[in-house]
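User: structure tokens for AcrR family transcriptional regulator, please.
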Amino acid sequence: MRRPVGRPPQPGRREEILTAAVRVAAERGLDDLSLAELATALGFSTYTLTYHFGRREGLLAAIVEHVETEMREQIRRLAEGPGGASPGELLRRYWESTRAPGAHSYMRLWLELLVLAGRHPDRFPGFQQRAATGWRDLAAQVLREHTGSDELATLIVATVTGLEIEQMLDPGSPRPGQALDCMIRLLEQRDAAEGP
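Assistant: Done. Predicted tokens:
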């Protein structure tokens, strides 16, 4: 009878490594991040990473899936959170969550994934489609329920994405937040004009 090689997987170990890998990838970027560099940053051996994720592409795929899942969950949590459920309140909650510690590097990772998937779709198969129909579609669905308009929901999601990019380019600028406040006021005026 053959003995198994190595130790059996420890419950939760893969998730622990993945969470740390996402943090490092968000800080350093993904494009040229090697397994050796990642292993050093995490304090693991490359063997540990390949044991849990296979090749580098397997780890990148797990990071992509993790980021997508987190974005969807964040939208769900915001939509189900306490307080008013108006589009303006949802936008305020979301914008506040993007100011949380670590959110800037996380958003940078998300945008990097979008660019890399556009440049190398075979490296991240289906990512662009899932990005369009995943958390963005969920956000549009939540907003659509509150606004009654597909077009307005799409416009809001696209505007917020643009403001996030502007905030990434100039992190200290108050302009994106001010622009968001302006959009919220316009939505509230629209709601008031339509009445109950």
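User: Anything notable?

Assistant: Residues 1-5 have pLDDT under 50 and may be disordered.
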